[in-house]
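Supplementary material to the annual report.
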Amino acid sequence: MARVRGRLAQLGQGWGGLGLWWLLLAALALYPYTGVTHLTLFLGSQVFVLVTLASNWNLIGGMTGYVDFGHAVFFGIGAYVMGILVTKSPLLVSPEWGFLQALPVSGAAAAIFALLIGLPTLRLKGPYFSIAMLGTFVAMREIVRVLRPLTGGGVGLNLPPVLNRLGDYYLMLVLMGLVVSIMWWIRRSEFGQSLIAIREDEIGAEMRGINTTLHKILAFMIAAFFTGVVGGFWAWQNTFIDPDVVFIETRTVEMVMMSMLGGLGTVWGPPLGAVVIYVLQTVVWGRLFGIHLLALGILMVLLVLFLPEGILGTSGRGGGTSIVRLWGRIRKRSDP
Amino acid sequence: MGPYPETVRSVTDGSRPLLEGRGLTKRFGGLTAVNRVDFAVQPGEIVGLIGPNGSGKTTLFDCLSRLERIDGGRVLFKGTDITRASPHRVARMGLSRTFQVIRVYRKMKVLDNMLVSRRWSGDSYLRVMRSSSAEMVRRARELLEFLRIAPLADEPAGHLSGGQRRLLEIGMALMPDPDILLLDEATSGVNPTLIETIKDHIRTLNGQGKAFLLIEHNINFIADLCTRVYALNHGETMAEGTPREIMENDAVIDAYFGA
Amino acid sequence: MDQVLQALVNGLLLGGFYAVMVLGFSVIWGVMGIINLAHGEYLMIGAYLGWGLFRYFGMDPFAALLLILPLMFLFGYVLQYVLINRIVERPHLMSLLITFGISIALANLFKILFTSDPRNVSVTYNGSVELLGITFPIVKSIIFGAALLCMLGLHLFLQRSRMGKSIRAAAQNRTAARIVGMDINRTYAVTAGICIAITAAAGAMLSPTQAIFPFMGPPLTLKAYTITALGGLGRIPGALMGGVVLGVTETMVSRFVPGIGTNLGVAISFVILVLILILRPQGLLGGLRPVDPEAE
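Predicted assembly:
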């Protein structure tokens, strides 16, 4: 069993993993032709959003080891840049195409903010970074609330409703395919290896010639860019933003949880974690109103206690992936 | 034959020291850990650094490799002032080191530990976006062979024993083909046979033109390898000379065994 | 001039509350090395307890402390024994994640139980007295006094009692304390119990002064963190100093910078925090335990 897992892990990092991923993308691209409803397309694009967010968070939180408890701030910035551009900018050609024009701007704004905030905060180690980012997030929500002329303050902004569920579906599919492929690529590259080296021992990495500041900032900016793009997309799809729906802790919690559940620092863990949590959310606790975050919080505690490496993560200590060892432990306990 | 290029890159003209410290000073609050230390390592030389615990040896290393901020004095490497340079730049210039408390990337495979320690200078960032070149992988495997830990290449570094990790650290320091290696207690926690192996490695590498600066408590190790030794006490240079001179120096004996 | 003095007094009173609110956070960090992200939620629970006892039993929030303290001690003791003790010796990331999880679970549990509508406790003595031309709000002055009392009590406990000495020993060297036969798990559980009880008491004291809602926690956690960075770990005078500095800064800024609401208090404490962390990562007074990336 453990050997099978080991092979799976190798397949994941090799071309085979990427091939399977593209096959899956192709299947998803054909899916709308099987005659599905608008609702299904909408839910599909929501799952793609979750997968993309989890993968992005994993780049800075899982691979680089800088656990970002405020990553939703980039989502919020992306959403607000989209909102402001679409409602206030005279430059956009038409709502429908203007949206596509504004999308990269959303990402770029988030990336630039990541650069500015990352220069001071990425110098902080471990918990200090996590809390500084949590602070950035909370502070940004208040700032957005205060900048009423630009952001509409607590009232929020209404975006022109242009309903195109099929377009949304394909846009998010492409974005998700791209982001996960980039993560696969980074994980294999020397850049990605250096990020993991930084996670394992930052001083050691710096002393061995890795420009740790540059690496961290780059990783942070990439993660922020795509999170910002997703934020812009979300604002467009939701057609309404205000500080409380955009800067919501849930978003960060979901990113952290999905990455953790799937396996921090792995390529396929966060997408898997995102799908698992989505399914849990809709099937298991979806019918109980408002229980989603309570369940996520409890799940996070349980994960830390029993499965800290996630489903696909391998521990530095024992052999095999951690879920295999957990299963072994459970079996050992059940037959004395 | 080791995995090194036959031709030694000539990095300095003979007259200039490879690594030089002038009046180096480092303070921690009220404590002066390194106090106006002068020293020099010539190209191709093996220099020892001894002293009782707490005499400032590792702090001096940390200053040289730029891990610690230097409070006074200058460091020159290949004639360039690196007193304020960032650690990764110094490493890229050809200064490698190991650590008293071993630093390996525990969750990465041994081979990957080697690969991320390669020489980074002169590459564009586009190169870094690709995976390690076949040439680097070959070099890493040869070095692991040379250090006799090749069978462990696919193990996570966290699984290795203390002695094996020391060897891996030396391997990681050798990956960039440095001009000078700073080894901080390379023999502690290593069994006697392995110490002999390390000694042989150092001689081989020195034969290829690499300079060494060694912090050691193992006096035989120093005596066998070094041409010159600096003895530190309370952060100051107490004596300098050949290993024999140092071992017969009264101040050194006093410092070690108490007066 | 009067305005400056008034703002100073307001800041001082706020600082007293901040000091007692931060104690638990600071001591847990100092003793166990855990940065407790659920800290604000313990305050929130305390505030809800204060509100509940007031609303349904007509109990005065300050009198209710006699009930809240033992209740939350028990809660903290059990929580520590069942959950946190299992991860105390694991990497920092784990304690961050587990307390983050607890924080989210608690906030949302309370949202399900009590909805997210803000609740208020309106006590009869909600006025103020004037003294030498300066207004002293009665409730905030009582909080200030109670805060000083709590700090004094905790100080005496840590310095004088046998348990307090064990706690300080465990803070300095876990392994050594274990070798000499101390029951570390119990010591930690007692520490957590005391810290969480004091925190919840602070929350209950807060209930007459501001609206209570399930998501009031995270900004308070952030402030606790800032104050700890200002005043140092586990030091009671430091907590008072840090609390007063933050309190005075907040009131001064919101009083004299035009167009800034108290909402931005969080933003201010964040700016202070980041500045301290960057300029002096060891904390303003050098009391923050360095977070060792090697610690496993």
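The beta strands of chain C are 128-131, 134-137.
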